[in-house]
Amino acid sequence: MNDKTHGTVIDSGERDPKMRTRALRSSDKVNPAERVDKAKQFAAKVAHLDEGSLLETLKHKYKIVRKILDGAFGFTYKVQHVTTKNEYALKTEPMTDEESMKRFKTLKTELVLYQAMDKIINPIKRQHFCQLVDFGCTSAFKFMVITLLGENLYTITRIYLNRAFTPSTALRVSIQMLRALMDLHGLGYVHRFLKPHTFAVGLGSNLRIIHMCDFSLAWQFKEEGESSVRPPRSRVKMMGAIRYTSRNSHHSRELSRRDDLESWLYLSMEFFYLNILPWRGDQIPSERTSQEGAFLHWRVPEHVQTYLGTVQGHHALPEKDEIRGNAGLSLPHAVPAGR
């Protein structure tokens, strides 16, 4: 599929060279939706696996059971180990050096992060993450095998229940999400893509444990063993789930731990009161941030506001117990007016 370009038609008699240069640059821009469609079509050609097919690595062989998810640049499958019959999740991503596809390549970031998680000695600090089982590549695609999870929290609340959790369940889920987030920050990474889809329940004995997943936009803000963090870039593209992303993201600022925690607050509020967030996804940044500010001021308890004020910038973070105490225990009291 050929990319369509959108630009300004310039009359041949145009005399202003600056205007002509701006128009030529504009004509080179590609519709983001078309770029995503092109990436998906490319992934479908080289990284798609049929049910019942086999994938063999150096030490293991897996049978494709079914497709779980269509990603932006790859697929997630439920697979079964041919020998042990254990079931796992397999993520694929096309092998390509094409410049236009570079922004969609995220599997390497996730793999490096899962390898860092495997080094965590304390089992309590890694219980909210999947375990890396296997990884490798073929001539056409790269892949990664990780622990299989149950349903994500969006599916549970929006499809199965069609309502918020009970207060006790919402509190338990919110605190577990916060613990997962703090453990991720402890590894030197920020998530930057928090939404109900990025948290899922476990299976079997881990059914009541909330797991964090989808680290496609994760960013390492601190090198391993270093105490100082990377300086923020002056301007970055907006990223994250629009409904839950922080105010900084709407102003193209570098996202830090503070922004993950703000997104966590929005998520947690909706697990207590479904659709409590007053803003829409299509609002311009100034309208959205003003609504977020009013929401945080009038609808959130003072303890939670204190927590948000404490979590400032890259350097000044409160102790974990202080965050859990001020934020987690106050969430049930964040009752909106009229409820």
TrEMBL record:
Matches recorded under PROSITE patterns: PROTEIN_KINASE_DOM (PS50011)
Sections of the chain in a coiled coil: none
One function term, GO molecular function aspect: protein kinase activity
Start and end residues of each Protein kinase domain: 62-339
InterPro entries: CK1_Ser-Thr_kinase, Kinase-like_dom_sf, Prot_kinase_dom
Gene3D superfamilies given in the database record: Transferase(Phosphotransferase) domain 1
Location of region: Disordered: 1-29
PANTHER family, per the entry: CASEIN KINASE-RELATED (PTHR11909)
Protein name: Protein kinase domain-containing protein
Lineage: Eukaryota, Metazoa, Ecdysozoa, Nematoda, Chromadorea
